[in-house]
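re: ur question from yesterday

yeah so i grabbed the chain u mentioned. its 213 aa long if i counted rite. heres the sequnce exactly as i have it in my notes:
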Amino acid sequence: MLRKVGILWTSLAIAGMGLLTASVATSALSQTAPTGHEHHHDHSAMAATPVKTSVVNYSVPALSLLRSDGKKAVFPVELDDGRPVLLQFIYTSCTAICPVTTQTFAQVQDKLGKDAGKLHMVSVSIDPEYDTPARLDSFAKKLGAGAQWQFYTGTLQDSVTLQKAFDAYRGDKMNHVAVSYLRAAPGKPWVRLDGLRSADDLLKEYRILLGKV
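ran it thru and got these structure tokens back, copy pasting raw so excuse formatting
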């Protein structure tokens, strides 16, 4: 009889610990997750963007942006330094797509190692009114971005113009989608990579561009 009572109390204690753990986890999420569901569109876009690869002739518009070092950058001159370009659109307060895509770029950089400088990596803010050069600089440092990886901001109109040129504009930052772009050299077409891609996927496409696959 005593043995049965002991087993019953043990079972109740374990169940109670499980409920307490679930309660603590829920409490922690409620404290760290954004309130007001301000990024719910972000998560939906991340889940809905299909993986697709296409080759497109984009024309980069003539406009001026600001690099994270505060210096003026004139496009398309900024991109036409002879190196292949890997480009993405991001914003630093994003909680869904951008943390994934920027970490993927960081992994590409790490995997390239000493050859990372041969690739011009470009991240352009779609929320330039919030993403000041100083904020982008801090963001870049957290990612461990090397000299070959540049971050850009500017006026909202210039950001929208550039997004539209790459068919990336979706009317609102919450509706932006996961997409990366690769170009072998000035004047060459762009490889558009829709959907969330791994660093290995991007590196494979990069090596195909270089004729190394």
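noticed a couple things. DSSP finds six helices and eight strands in the chain. also The first strand starts at residue 52 and ends at 56.
anyway ttyl
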